[in-house]
Design goal:
146 residues, alpha+beta, two-stranded antiparallel sheet
């Protein structure tokens, strides 16, 4: 019985751990960054656009998908200009020392030329909470690397 309990505990801990492909939130299943949304489109089209398997790049251990070859090339030329902050984790979660993997790609903001993603609720406070997220990010990031 002890062994069964220990096995369940191990499985639960793995199941609840965020999945990061190197430095990037890839959710719990697969290796696709930010749920397959085109990170360049947030900047160029000012909206969330689903990417395609036809236009992909590998960066920081994750697969990034794009809606066009043009966007893929822009990302390849300068990924740091387009990649979301905090590894694509929920920005509000990072502000409160949480590793929120589930994001809602339709809920986002660009502040000072940087992309911030969210799990949804409370995101309207990002501008006020961003300094906390910036302060917390090194510790959250270190925890994710364990």
């Amino acid at each position: 019985m002890k062994r069964l309990g220990l096995t369940c505990l191990c499985i639960a801990s793995v199941w609840t751990m965020p999945a990061l492909a190197g430095e990037v939130n890839t959710g719990y299943f697969g290796n696709v960054a930010i749920e397959g949304y085109d990170t360049v489109a947030y900047f160029t089209e000012k909206r969330a656009v689903k990417g395609s398997e036809k236009f992909q790049s590998e960066w920081l251990g994750a697969t990034w998908q794009f809606s066009s070859d043009e966007n893929r090339k822009k990302f390849d030329a300068s990924p740091m200009d387009y990649a979301p902050q905090y590894g694509g984790l929920c920005s509000e979660g990072v502000a409160f020392n949480e590793m929120t993997v589930n994001i809602e790609p339709e809920v986002w903001q660009i502040i000072d030329g940087k992309l911030y993603l969210s799990a949804g609720a409370g995101f309207e406070d990002l501008a006020a909470n961003r300094p906390k997220a910036d302060t917390n990010w090194p510790a959250v990031h270190a925890e994710l690397q364990k």
